[in-house]
Specification:
This protein is of the alpha/beta class and 276 residues long. The protein contains eight helices and nine strands. Strands 1-2-3-5-4-6-7-8-9 form a nine-stranded mixed β-sheet, sandwiched between helices. The longest helix is centred in the last third of the chain and has 18 residues. The chain is globular, with a radius of gyration of 17 Å. The two termini are 28 Å apart. 47% of the residues are buried.
């Protein structure tokens, strides 16, 4: 697998290294990029790893360029891996709308044509990219997962469905109930079909309400000035079983942007470090 992984960029930053890779995905049937931050490997030879999943229209660059996470990650000895948000390329199905198709993979395994040929983002992250990270890049430490908006949905779903693997979950402005909000309904109808029973395994609100596995601590931050709060996000619909370690913080005056993420990213990394 090593020969299939191409290093596109490498930058020294805060006593660590920021990298960008490209490889051909056998799961998505296209070329994919992902980014990786590594702390000082001499100080942290086997760092814990946090997965970051980005939101609609984003690539792996948005977080690495705007979140300002590298300084705190370097201090705490945390590696960060940032996948892209969807398959891409001329042969990959797309849509004229920005909230469907390329840049809008929703971290599900599509079952409907034409999306099913490429849009297998859940398997890509949980299996294929995980194998690359572990076997090719040698990162075998404990793991947690976080994300923003569509990526917050992805982090919650992947974390809850793999509660034996991920030590903690956090999210900024996540889509917690995609089955009942416009962004999620549009994507799920296209990718998964009209039968809403097929949507339930990809809906964090339903997964958490019925969760009977190992409880994974969850931290959720939501800005009160977020334009998407009441229609698309609805954090009040994420209801945990009694005693579940879920913390939802409403942050006064913050919006949906990376300014919000940058304001609280250090606290999220510290939250993950505590559980890793």
């Amino acid at each position: 697998m090593t020969e299939k992984l191409e290093l596109l960029e490498e930058h020294r930053v805060f006593d660590g290294t920021q990298r960008k890779y490209q490889h051909h995905s056998e799961t998505l049937h296209c070329a994919m990029t992902f980014s990786l931050f590594l702390p000082n490997v001499e100080k942290f030879p086997n760092p814990s790893l946090i997965w970051w999943l980005s939101g609609l229209t984003c690539t792996d660059d948005n977080f690495t360029h705007k979140a300002g996470a590298q300084k705190k990650a370097a201090e705490l000895g945390l590696a960060l891996v940032m996948p892209d948000t969807s398959p891409r390329g001329e042969t990959v199905a797309d849509d004229a709308d920005w909230d469907l198709g390329q840049g809008a993979g929703f971290y599900v395994n599509a079952t409907q044509q034409p999306w099913d040929a490429n849009y297998q983002m859940y398997d890509y992250i949980v299996t294929e990219l995980t194998t690359i990270v572990r076997e090719t890049l040698g990162l075998t430490g404990s793991e947690s997962i976080m994300g923003h908006s569509m990526g917050g949905h992805g982090a919650l779903v992947i974390g809850l469905r793999n509660s034996d693997r991920f030590r903690a979950i956090s999210a900024f402005s996540p889509i917690v109930n995609p089955s009942d909000v416009p962004w999620g309904m549009k994507a799920f109808d296209a990718y998964l079909g009209a039968d809403k029973q097929a949507w339930a395994p990809w809906d964090a609100s339903k997964l958490l309400a019925s969760h009977d596995g190992k409880p994974v601590p969850i931290l959720l931050d939501q800005g009160t000035a977020d334009n998407f709060l009441h229609v698309q996000l609805q954090p009040e619909n994420l209801i945990a079983p009694e005693g579940y370690p879920l913390k939802i913080r409403m942050q006064d005056g913050y919006d949906h942007s990376y300014y919000f993420i940058a304001s609280f990213i250090d606290e999220h990394l510290e939250f993950h470090q505590k559980h890793l």
